[in-house]
């Protein structure tokens, strides 16, 4: 049964009880009123008539011959005869009538006294009946009063029961709901409401408990998402190659990633929740980072801050400071407020190295250009004199031709580099190519250099070597470059080997020298642009572009170029090209 029905039935019961009290009171009062009316009609009227008859008798006794006394007695007696209500009253009235007849025929004092006595008996009879009926009415009134008091008491008790139970029945579930809501607002979703009934509050309790379950599930999923996002953000922050420091508006450290802790030489746990100014007093790098923040022209001070040099993993790394203010719009004050700063140390080591490579390249190119130009200039001055003979003139002109070819080769390499820039692309003319022809042409080109250094050239080319799909010009250029490097770094009198062999769907060509070799940590670096790996004596010449261009050419043709070498054991440069067909 629901609460509404309970309350309705309770008030209906109270209403029925009150109606019963009212009906009973009305019925009782009506009965008392009727009884009193009957008394007045039946007995009190008879008493009045008796009094009138006595008055008429008194008049007849005083003045026996007075007119009107006897008729008055007769009239009152006649009315009394019409108002007979009590037992024995009829006999008394008949006796009075007979005595009156006797008195009227012969008025005597005994007859008069007899009439008086009989009238008194009529009055006494009605008086006694009046008193008896009055006692009955009193008893009825007392009983009705007790009944009304009892019913009123029951009504009051029922009303008190309703007053005590209905508000409590309404307030107790609300109190339980309030307590559960307070627990829910404190993120305690386990404090459910016991379901003790199937009324409205029972339905509210079940709905509220379902809501708590859903809130718990939502909170769990939300917490999982937040943890996931926090872990993702932490992974991003911790994975940065930049030192990151987050300060609040008071300069207190809120976040520091491991890179910054490594750069500062302090554990992250010792940085978080510390005032940055206090930490800077015992850490020079942090003091340098915070110094521009207090400058009058902060942006200029940050821009003019020199690169910070920090040693990491045994190598010098270069970092540039960047500062970003954090602001937040406060809806309450309708203002934008300063809430903190993000300081980052951006790793610019690669840019610094590129700048160094550029400087080295300019120095190398200047040297490469200066040497042949100086030689050509000296040779031209010799040609301008008339003191050299024809043989010497021929030797000088041959030198000018060699230096000119060297300049052309260097300029050609620079042009090839510009073509290999992103977006420029490499123009290739693919076709079936016989590698023995390429080897023959390349070795013939460098034969003079081989002879000049007294080297021996060995070629190992199988007779059944398949043709490759390649650009003849680019492939020949690569082989000539590899041979030139091998000649440059091979000791006098050693042997150079050029071999080729099938390797699955590719053909592999190798240039083997007996030079000083290359350390394993430099195998990839030598294929970078402008890279030069010095040894104890230093490399002789070269712009550091040849191997970079060669790898680009081979890769563009679908092959691969790499080196196998150890210090003191010579070097073997390999490249592959796909088989034609």
UniProtKB/TrEMBL annotation:
InterPro entries reported in the protein's UniProt record: BphY/WalK/GraS-like, HAMP_dom, HATPase_C_sf, HATPase_dom, His_kinase_dom, HisK_dim/P_dom, HisK_dim/P_sf, PAS
Domain HAMP: 168-220
GO cellular component, one term: membrane raft
Alphabetical UniProt keywords: ATP-binding, Cell membrane, Kinase, Membrane, Nucleotide-binding, Phosphoprotein, Transferase, Transmembrane, Transmembrane helix, Two-component regulatory system
Keyword Protein biosynthesis: no
Catalytic activity: ATP + protein L-histidine = ADP + protein N-phospho-L-histidine
Top EC class for this record: transferase
Any GO molecular function: phosphorelay sensor kinase activity
Every PAS domain range: 229-274
Pfam families with a match to the protein in the record: HAMP, HATPase_c, HisKA, PAS
Main localisation: membrane
GO process terms (BP): osmosensory signaling via phosphorelay pathway; regulation of DNA-templated transcription
EC number(s) on file: 2.7.13.3
Membrane topology of the entry: Multi-pass membrane protein
Histidine kinase domain: residues covered: 364-581
Record localization: Cell membrane; Membrane raft
Domain of life: Bacteria
Listed PANTHER family: SENSOR HISTIDINE KINASE GLRK, TWO-COMPONENT HISTIDINE KINASE
Protein name: histidine kinase
Protein species of origin: Hymenobacter nivis
